[in-house]
Amino acid sequence: MKRRLLLLVVFLTSVFSAGCAPQQSYYFGNYSQTLYASEKYQNEEAYVKHQQELERVIYESEVRNLPIPPGICAELGYINLKGNNSKEAIRLFQLEAQLYPESKHLMDRLIQSAKAKESPDASESDLSKSNDPVSQ
Amino acid sequence: MKKFAYLLFGILIIALMSACAPAMNTKLSEFPMMYQEQPLSILILPPMNESTAADAKEYYSTTIQEPLAFYGYYTFPYPVTADILKMEGIYDTELLVNLPLAKFKEYFGADAVLFTTIKKWDLSYMILASTLTVSIDCQLKSTTSDQTLWEYTGTVVVDLSGGNTGGGVGGLIAKAIVTAISTAMADYVPYARQANYRALSSLPYGKYHAQHNKDQQVQFIDQTPEETKTDAEPLTK
């Protein structure tokens, strides 16, 4: 009797506390942790790890049949843009805009600056300036 | 014996229920603007830091994007938008507080911007108790009307020196000392995440959540007025 009662209490407690948990609809992996590490250590190793984590979140989301979380493709695209990999950057920005129409405005802006970076007439010296997405 | 058990059970149930009882508010009555404006996309601004920890700003900023996404909003990737804002010369959100926010609509296409303020991010030592406190103040403002759509405070206080069962006093003191030595920021971040979830508990769900537009009558603990009273008063005077 006592044991059954205890079980009931445990069950009820878990039901009450389960109500507070947000609904799991995305796979974020260790996104927050690797982002935090790259803020904390600010070194190449941490940056690479964070980039790999972004790639893994996209891969795992597809495996789990979940939508890729907001901002992930855009962030990976931005890393590619900075790493002079404009083609991949454009692909990711387009994917983000397609997944989340709310982002289209900003993504179009970023795609423009990626295209500007891709075109050969951008001279080496003012690369950083001309591709600054803000100045355009 | 049996009677006692029933009594205990009853008390437990009441205790569980009453935890939700103090000053409840529905989401609709407290934040009607959220349902009127229906913001879909949120731009997270760099946090404002009122705590004594200089690094808190950078570390806290890494914790807020994920929970907002789980609440059904489109969140612009913080590392990207923060970088763009830096290039625009915006390092300090403090300067933006009373300015029109239409620019964020124009540039990013954001429906709303989230101002966060780190109120507390510290350890306090006392002879018998030392506590870690993380307190975050969140404010969501519309980029079309400049109005505050939603605001709430999340506070997490962790008692480092006791409250636990088991382990002698010696053990607890040792634990507190160990925690004090490793005052690394890493200790705060998990609690900052908890504080976020506490703050967001009153936020109406966004478009990508199943409960979107169905949570008007959901109740939450009305804690903000009291907290801001005790916190803000000495600051304003």
List the helices and strands and how they pair.
The complex is a heterodimer of chains A (136) and B (237).
Chain A: H1 2-18, H2 31-41, H3 44-63, H4 72-82, H5 86-99, H6 104-118, H7 127-130
Chain B: H1 2-18, E1 24-26, H2 27-30, H3 32-37, E2 41-44, E3 48-49, H4 56-61, H5 65-70, E4 74-75, H6 78-87, H7 102-108, E5 112-125, E6 130-142, E7 148-159, H8 169-181, H9 189-200, E8 219-221, H10 224-236
Parallel strand pairs in B: 2-4, 2-5, 3-5
Antiparallel strand pairs in B: 1-8, 5-6, 6-7
In a nutshell, what does this entry contain?
The complex is a heterodimer of chains A (136) and B (237). Chain A is mainly alpha-helical and 136 residues long.
Explain how this protein is built.
The complex is a heterodimer of chains A (about 140) and B (about 240). Chain A contains 7 helices and no strands. Chain A is mainly α. Chain A has one domain. The longest helix of chain A has 20 residues, at about 45-65. Helix content of chain B is about 40%, strand content about 20%. In chain B, strand 5 and strand 6 form a beta hairpin. Chain B is built from 10 helices and 8 strands. Chain B is globular and about 70 Å long. In chain B, strands 2, 3, 4, 5, 6 and 7 form a 6-stranded mixed sheet that branches. Chain B has a two-stranded antiparallel sheet with strand order 1-8. Chain B has a single domain, classed as ABC-type transport auxiliary lipoprotein component (Rossmann fold, 3-Layer(aba) Sandwich), CATH 3.40.50. The chains are: A mainly alpha (about 140), B alpha/beta (about 240). Chains A and B meet through helix 1, helix 2, helix 4 and helix 6 of A and helix 1, helix 4, helix 5, strand 4 and helix 6 of B.
